[in-house]
Specification:
497 residues, single chain, alpha/beta, Aspartate Aminotransferase, domain 2
């Protein structure tokens, strides 16, 4: 067979008419997949052993084409999509992963095709403006009276937490009698730094401490009460202990919806304590900050306006496709502190040894304030959702999720052999099967066994969490299509396991 001319190959790869035809067919395929999931007309997961599956997927590296567009669609429809975790399925109640808004998924297609790098303004002009507008809206939800706030969008909550804590470290480093630039010169021969965080803080906080060179042991865990909320007295005592040991606290981290239980720390009390002791107050609102969209639930976040930094995940209760997270600062110029690094070949700005962190003009070159150099057009999908549905529409999704958690908690109390951990504060509910005939170890094994049975059957997808030596089943009620009947079926399945 005669080989194609290189230009013919390139033209075929970038054929806009073929793109249109394949795109139409792909949208039709995804629409059917989407509808099937919402209606629950399939298993939530088609469980297969990953070791066996890995063997089935192994194939030689293609040196030439092995599929055409038609066969690719068949492969998607027959093999790939059926083996996904059905995110929109009513029985998907596991992780804090949104059932994404369909329009947001289409916006991701726009972002992929236009491929705006966003390294500097000219590499993504409209993408930059979209992000700046979205950031203004999110900051306005936190505190409409603060016109100095700002921030950036980044790839996920872990990176968002790292960015905020890098800024906190840099700000802390200039407060000493002999200030230094922590970003430039590192931590050698400088005071020992630490972070105070709830015992339920996300693991990304310890990971950030490790990445920053503080060591994960530098994260000092603050005791939480029986409702999973940080104890303010324990925070005060830990701070006093740090001062006695000559440890410098660079940040206090509170949860607005912790991963384990969805609990919200007493943000006002923590924020006021931080203000009175000149401590950086960071709120991990990856999950729960979206309560600000709800008139009913926003009061749970009273005090969040005191935070020096807040992170907020779009791919959780803002119902965006993964991943998109906001890092928001009370003072926009603190965003520049996270990555105090020269990159003159990109930014064409003079390097400065000034580390006093005086307010500086905002730059339109977003990469100056984020770990990513090339960055996806993240703002379009959230800008579109706000524009199409407003805070009223997005708040309705939050209200629905929170009320469904309350409903599940109420139903659990009607089952004598199921124990509720605590009243849900957001949309996360933890509970477990209980039996007086089983000891703690046997009870823990029972929860794990139940979860595995439900997973392998494909009937329900839920997770588990260990708290103080006890394993609990954990559900996150993200899906607006989960019904009261689905919740009944879940509890019956657990009691019959």
């Amino acid at each position: 067979m005669q080989k194609k001319h290189p230009q013919a190959i390139i033209n075929e790869m970038f054929d806009h008419e073929a793109f249109q035809q394949t795109g139409y067919a792909l949208i039709e395929l995804l629409s059917k997949y989407f509808a099937t999931n919402i209606e629950g007309n399939r298993q939530v997961i088609l469980w297969k052993d990953p070791v066996d599956e890995d063997l089935n997927w192994q194939a030689p590296l293609p040196r030439s084409a092995t599929l055409n567009a038609k066969n690719l669609l068949l492969k998607l429809g027959n093999e790939i999509l059926p083996n996904t975790l059905a995110i929109h399925h009513p029985h998907n109640i596991g992780h804090q992963v949104a059932t994404p808004l369909p329009i947001a998924a289409l916006c991701d297609l726009v972002a992929s095709l236009t491929n705006q790098a966003m390294t500097i303004y000219e590499a993504g002009p409209s993408a930059t403006m979209l992000e700046r507008q979205v950031i203004r809206w999110l900051c306005d939800l936190i505190n409409p009276n603060n016109k100095k706030a700002g921030g950036i969008l980044t790839s996920g909550g872990a990176l968002a937490n790292l960015t905020a804590l890098l800024a906190a470290r840099q700000v802390a480093s200039v407060k000493f009698s002999k200030p230094w630039n922590a970003w430039k010169t590192g931590l050698n021969n400088n005071p020992l730094l630490c972070i105070l965080a709830s015992e339920h803080a996300h693991y990304s906080i310890s990971r950030a401490a490790g990445i920053m060179g503080l060591g994960s042991d530098a994260v000092i865990k603050i005791k939480a009460d029986s409702n999973g909320r940080m104890c303010i007295e324990s925070l005060k005592q830990a701070h006093e202990n740090c001062k006695e040991q000559n440890l410098t606290v660079i940040a206090v981290v509170a949860n607005a919806g912790c991963t384990a239980t969805g609990s919200i720390d007493p943000l006002e009390d923590v924020g006021e304590y931080c203000q009175s002791h000149d401590l950086w107050f960071h709120v991990d609102g990856a999950h729960g900050a979206s309560a600000l969209l709800s008139d009913q639930h926003a009061p749970k976040l009273a005090g969040i306006h005191l935070a020096d930094s807040v992170i907020w995940d779009g791919h959780k209760l803002l119902y965006m496709p993964a991943t998109m997270s906001a890092v928001l600062f009370k003072n926009a110029h603190h965003a520049d502190a996270a990555f105090s690094q020269e990159a003159s070949y990109l930014f064409q700005e003079e390097d400065s040894d000034d580390i006093t962190l005086e307010i500086r003009p905002e730059t339109f070159n977003i990469s100056y304030r984020t770990l990513e150099c090339t960055k996806r057009m993240m703002g379009l999908k959230l800008w579109t959702a706000f524009s199409l549905y407003g805070t009223d529409g997005l708040g309705t999704l939050v209200d629905e999720a929170f009320s469904k958690a309350q409903l599940l908690a109420t139903k659990i109390k009607q089952f004598p052999n199921i124990e509720l951990l605590m009243e849900p504060e957001t949309n996360i509910v933890c509970f477990r099967y209980k039996s007086d005939e089983l000891n703690t170890a046997e009870m823990n094994l029972k929860q794990t066994t139940i979860r595995k049975q439900l997973l392998k059957s494909g009937d329900f997808y839920l997770t588990q969490v260990e708290l103080h030596g006890k394993v609990w089943l954990r559900t996150t009620l993200m899906n607006p299509f989960t019904t009261p009947e689905d919740l009944n079926a879940l509890l019956i399945a657990i009691t019959e396991s």
